[in-house]
Amino acid sequence: MAEQALKLRPISDSPEAGQPYDAVRSILDKVKAEGRDSLTAPEGKIVCDAYGIAVPQEGVAKSSSEAASLAEGMGYPVVLKIVSPDILHKTEAGGVLVGLKTREEVEKGYESILANARNYKADARVDGVQVQQMLTGGQEVIIGAVTDSSFGKLVAFGLGGVLVEVLKDITFRLAPATHEDALSMLDGIQAAEILKGVRGGEAVDREALSDMIVKVSQLVSDFPEISELDLNPVFATASGAIAADVRVVVDFSPQPERYRPSQEDIVRQMNRIMKPDAVAVIGASAEDGKIGNSVMKNLINGGYKGKIYPIHPKADEIMGIKAYKSVKDVPGVIDVAVFAIPAKFVAGALTECGEKEISGAVLIPSGFAETGNVEGQEELQAIGRKYNIRLMGPNIYGFYYTPQNLCATFCTAYDVQGTAALSSQSGGIGMAIIGFSRSAKMGVSAIVGLGNKSDIDEDDLLTFFEQDDNTKIIAQHLEDLKDGRSFAEVAKRVSKKKPVVVLKAGRTSAGAAAASSHTGALAGNDKIYEDVFAQSGVIRARSLRDLLEYARGVPVLPTPKGENIVIITGAGGSGVLLSDACVDNDLNMMSMPDDLDTAFRKFIPPFGAAGNPVDITGGEPPSTYRNTIKLGLEDPRIHSIILGYWHTIITPPMVFAEVVIDVVEEMKKKGIHKPIVASLAGDVEVEAAAEHLYANGVPAYAYSTEIPVAVLGAKYKWARGAGLL
Amino acid sequence: MAEQALKLRPISDSPEAGQPYDAVRSILDKVKAEGRDSLTAPEGKIVCDAYGIAVPQEGVAKSSSEAASLAEGMGYPVVLKIVSPDILHKTEAGGVLVGLKTREEVEKGYESILANARNYKADARVDGVQVQQMLTGGQEVIIGAVTDSSFGKLVAFGLGGVLVEVLKDITFRLAPATHEDALSMLDGIQAAEILKGVRGGEAVDREALSDMIVKVSQLVSDFPEISELDLNPVFATASGAIAADVRVVVDFSPQPERYRPSQEDIVRQMNRIMKPDAVAVIGASAEDGKIGNSVMKNLINGGYKGKIYPIHPKADEIMGIKAYKSVKDVPGVIDVAVFAIPAKFVAGALTECGEKEISGAVLIPSGFAETGNVEGQEELQAIGRKYNIRLMGPNIYGFYYTPQNLCATFCTAYDVQGTAALSSQSGGIGMAIIGFSRSAKMGVSAIVGLGNKSDIDEDDLLTFFEQDDNTKIIAQHLEDLKDGRSFAEVAKRVSKKKPVVVLKAGRTSAGAAAASSHTGALAGNDKIYEDVFAQSGVIRARSLRDLLEYARGVPVLPTPKGENIVIITGAGGSGVLLSDACVDNDLNMMSMPDDLDTAFRKFIPPFGAAGNPVDITGGEPPSTYRNTIKLGLEDPRIHSIILGYWHTIITPPMVFAEVVIDVVEEMKKKGIHKPIVASLAGDVEVEAAAEHLYANGVPAYAYSTEIPVAVLGAKYKWARGAGLL
Questions:
Q1: Of A97, B127, B412, B687, which one is least surrounded by beta carbons within 10 A?
Q2: Which of A92, A113, A133 is the last residue of a domain?
Q3: pLDDT band for position B388 (cuts 50, 70, 90)
Q4: Could you tell me the CATH number of the domain that includes residue A586?
Q5: CA–CA distance, B382 with B386 (Å, rounded to integer)
Q6: CB contact residues (below 8 A), chain B span 208-247, against chain A
Q7: Within this chain, do residues B514 and B568 fall inside the same structural domain, yes or no?
């Protein structure tokens, strides 16, 4: 770990590469030996020095010229202090001078301090005069580090002072942070403008500040026992950054080891689970209303083509399929076992699965950690580890994987194939996903229940869906992340390829309290989730409906090739609301070039509004929509289009929809494929028109100006995070 | 106006009641006479003194004891400064002493300043020593006033310093502000906590600060020519507030007079327009596709029972109704005329309406200000004033008033009677209102298009709907307020009786730009709208969908009797999201009393979660929902209930809906009527269940945890603003 640290730190280029680590190590060993839980100020200074974190410079001079040389070296102003074991009250003795600004002042100051000391106490032993860098001006900031139970080491940055404490204007990144992460932190606070210099103030040295952030993040990553670190305040000026005060808290108690299979193992096992050749149903039943019956029905009626093995202690066959008493009696290989038996029988059956070398167990039964039966769940985890079975659940509805027509669940079947992979921690939310999907005809590749997450977690799913060609977007509802560090690492990689959307429930304090009572997991600080999601390229949904709409709409849209967005609208009023929504969603409304403005004007009435939005006005025929949309698609300076339709007799809703679809198809044939979303204002016929548009690749919404723009905004967030813009 | 001002100001209780006004008047007269546009610092001080706005005290002492007396009077610390025409560089002359804290220091200081002066320049004439109150410590704040083109005089409050300028943490109220308004401003900034004292700092004197805000607001109200005023900084301490610097900008150009009929006139005329006994259709037509034909069809087929007079230059009858060449030919009284003729003919026909003493003109035609024809619109306004005709539009779809079965519009008819009155500035948004209403079966009392708002404005509608027994909620889409002052005054009164919900489009800068190009009206600073809406009890919708959902849901809910909300949920996951939504909507989740917790626990499984949310768990029968909901309704400590339903076979969606409706009805018979909203998670059957619940008084939503809570939140916002909680 030290090696990795040294590779990242500039300091490592020096010949003393091993020394910084060793210097800190020996301090920490001493603190541990003495049973302390924090470092003294001098120890803190040594740690900072070792990692190249600037603290006020100081030195002891034995002569006035030496004092002046020290001062020159550290820069003015400086403070001079008498160093004498016999003088306790330095100020009283005239032994302190502050704010010395020139060589002459320092030399004179040195002499006058010595003279004052002699006057004060003629026989005092004088060891010299301490010269210390004096910190003044600049912007006070805070750089710190914390240890989060889910995310591990995090580095923090904020502005110093009361206002920031009150406004909680602070930002976090996973440690170690890259230089880019650190720079993004300077822009990641609300008051970022202050660092750029306001009201005649100078801009701070961004390199120096971000360098200090990187070093702090590296330090705490190198030494997990540093549980908290505060540089507060750090004085940031135009020419550097110096930490005036250092506080280091340590915790030597051993960190719990986390079980982390390799990415290869995850892919291999998750593929066997999600795309099995053979499924066993433990607790299969022919009796209506039983969970084991629902699972059987869903497997059979859902159209699953692999082998199905009902497991039942007595039955010879269930629903026409030969049954077995145990998975061990099944002649062939089994990939996954779906459990539909009471909690108390699960451990025994799971052991048999292990002996049968089954890759995954879908643990539908409840009655484990969520009801207080933590030991029961730990027993399952132990069996899972022993036999290398991956566990989904317990306390789940199961899962759907539509490319295999696989409904390994007791819920209603779902068969609209598509590219959105959804998951939920909660069963209720899972049902909402299924209902919404069916209602909105959303094509899904998978819906997965994670429940108690005794083993399979969000990042296992990310790893599977990353390499699953049937999945184009991953949307997850979650209440906690048992291993946020692992999630972030995987999400950072996966989100470069496919959009990852997350609804983090329990994001407010009341919500977090409910999360705690629901899952027994402590919900983390929401600001940490916010920042780590951003750092990992995760798109955060603010509501259940947003999660679902993003899952539905984002994969329908092509990836935009640039930031320029144009609104074309028949209703000026919609144009205003769509513009509002653009700002809300960080979308850039193109400033309309004159020639393009002229080109648009050719198609619209003279009183249509200029610029962007392009207001074609309400009474226009289909050709006006066609001409303007076509122009918007053809002009390479425009990258995405937002449509505002106004229901009129001249251009009825379905005619509008057909025009849009037709132009889009025509352009596609020419190789032009840009994101288009639409907002439809009108009587109820607009609902069918919106549905028709959606089915043809144009996310469209009736009576809403905000949702279509939010969907486009999600696409842009992803494209930016993935480095495609 | 001065009298009114003096009544509000404490200063007016003094015998010199007329003097403050006169003092400011004479300063302003002088500034005007001299052709200046701002006041000098001494003039600013006189203005502040006149209105009792504290500025640093000062006086000139001729002796050390006089200096001490002055200092005692103003409080320590003080500054002493030599007063001498012969000493220009006071500091150089040793003529300034700062931070004197005791009587002794002042007396000694006086003498030493005189001595220094003599040393410096023996023959200098010395007029005395100025004693000035020294402002130190405390919190720097800003109190100011601006003149907004729509809202008129506004008072502003914020924290001083760079951070606030960067974070734009400032709040506005209409001037004059009441003491309560002023106090609410202290709590209305993000950093409000700072004023309460943080990190050992003292809390500021809230009375002194709010008193200063009130006085500033009164000053600018008394003197409209004061266009801007800044007290910056104001030093706020635990014992008072003093403005260290005063800046007053004046504008003596005459203010445009606004046309404001009396509230009585508005009510009388709006009643004739909205509930007419006779309607003329100018430009009535028998020809399909013509606007005048659509209007006739809507009037006849909509079921309007009053008299209809088609006006047409040639026809004798239209759609079986006798037609007239002019309104003047109609024998009886006409209340309102609906215009369906080209723009160029409108003025002439409007004059005839005036001669016929018609109360209102519904100006559907476009081709006025929105197309640049400002003169044409001004001509209509002049005719309207001359004949006292109120004008709706031009450039509108018309209006609906369902209690009269009146569809005075060319759009599709709408007939679902209800209690929501909606209006829109834009025709497109009007169509979205109609479509949504029909789709959601939302009962409406009225839908009104306001378009160019040449005359009838949002506040005219508020005044009408206030006294309209058929209306229980007023929901308005607007892009600008031509007379925000009038709107705010009326809304403040009306919102005490009925919820007023507003979607202000153009709230972001891009949106505002679009608003400007659309209506030619400059969209105001959004923060001003935000604060004035809050001050006026207006509930602000953040999106079109919110506006519509609030209009639909809020009137369905009874008014809550208290702030305690309990969530009862079958899905723990929904409980967490519903809790999040409570925080987002400023709703107070009740801390569950022990006895009530025990009572709930009796009905739920042992592993159901304690507290609030009440997690009844997923597998429960209808009786568990029934028992817990009943308990929640019966216990007087609970004021509102949020339900989270999870679709299961044991309690299917419609069974859940019936149980809820049944319990609610049962409780109503006992006189218990509390707000209940529901979030339904499940397969598509939950949609019908939600609709059934809604139709029976329980706003319910499928696949959304946020919308039901937002609707409840809107009800609470209204109830709080109306003083009912």
A1: B127
A2: A133
A3: very high
A4: 3.40.50.261
A5: 6
A6: none
A7: no
Last-in-domain residue among A218, A250, A282: A250
Percent of chain B with pLDDT over 90: 76
Q: How far apart are CA B422 and CA B430, in angstroms?
A: 9
Residue contacts between A and B (CB atoms, under 8 Å): 301
Q: What is the ipTM of this complex?
A: 0.89
Determine, for residues A431 and B682 on separate chains, whether the beta-carbon distance falls below 8 Å: yes
Q: Which of A326, A306, A308, A324 is nearest to A316 (CA)?
A: A324
In angstroms, the CA B365 to CA A429 distance is 50
The Cα A383–Cα B445 span in angstroms is 65
- Angle between helix axes B572-584 and A509-519 (nearest 10 degrees) is 170
- Find where tokens 């209603």 sit: A412
C-beta separation of A459 from A491 below 8 A:
yes
Question: Span A145-173, mean pLDDT?
Answer: 84
Determine whether the interchain pair A426/B687 forms a contact, defined as Cβ–Cβ distance below 8 Å: no
**Number of structural domains chain A divides into:** 4
- Rounded to two decimals, the pTM is 0.89
> CA gyration radius for chain B?
32
C-alpha to C-alpha distance for B257 and B216, rounded to whole angstroms: 24
How far is residue A516's CA from residue B249's CA, in Å, rounded to a whole number? 56
Q: Is the minimum CB–CB distance between B522 and chain A shorter than 8 Å?
A: no
Q: Which residues of B touch A572 (CB under 8 A)?
A: 370, 426, 428, 514, 518-519
- SS3 per-residue string spanning A450-481: CCCCCCCCHHHHHHHHHCCCCCCEEEEEECCC
3-class DSSP assignment, residue A609: strand
Q: Do A198 and B509 touch (CB under 8 A)?
A: no
Q: Are B431 and A649 in contact (CB under 8 A)?
A: no
> Could you tell me if B204 and B236 are in contact, meaning their C-beta atoms sit under 8 angstroms apart?
yes
- With cut-offs at 50, 70 and 90, classify the pLDDT of residue B502: very high
| A193/A297 same-domain check | no
* Average per-residue pLDDT for chain A: 91
Give the 3-state secondary structure of residue B616. coil
B401's tokens: 């008033």
CA–CA dist A503, B702 (Å, integer): 17
Find the CB nearest B425 among A161, A434, A573.
Answer: A573
Q: Identify whether B258 is part of a domain.
A: no
Q: Return the structure tokens found at B271.
A: 């009643």
Domain extent for A605: 564-721
Query: Could you tell me the two tokens for B644?
Result: 């989270």
Decide if B243 is inside a domain: yes
Angle at A336 between CA A290 and CA A347, to 5 degrees: 65
Hunting for tokens 């970022």 — which residue is that?
A192
* Residue A466 pLDDT class (50, 70, 90 cuts): very high
SS3 B545: helix
Contacts for B443 with CB less than 8 Å, ≥ 6 apart:
B402, B416, B417, B418, B419, B420
Residue that is written with structure tokens 């690749």 in the block: A697
Chain A residues with CB inside 8 Å of B425's CB?
Answer: 573
CA dihedral for B238, B240, B243, B244, sign (positive or negative): negative
Q: The domain spanning residue A193 has which CATH number?
A: 3.30.470.20
Long-range contacts made by residues A11-20, C-beta under 8 angstroms, separation at least 24?
A: A11/A51, A11/A52, A11/A215, A19/A50, A20/A50, A20/A51, A20/A52
Contact list in A for residue B567 (CB cut-off 8 A) is 514
CA pair distance A70, A56, nearest whole angstrom: 13
Residue type, B303: G
Which residues of chain A does B367 touch, with a Cβ-Cβ cutoff of 8 Å?
607
Sign of CA dihedral A174, A178, A180, A185: positive
Residues listed for chain B: 725
User: Does B712 reside within a domain?
Assistant: yes
**φ, ψ (nearest 5 deg) of residue A128:** 140, -165
Mean pLDDT within A324-332: 97
Which residues of B are less than 8 Å from A584 in CB distance?
A: 508
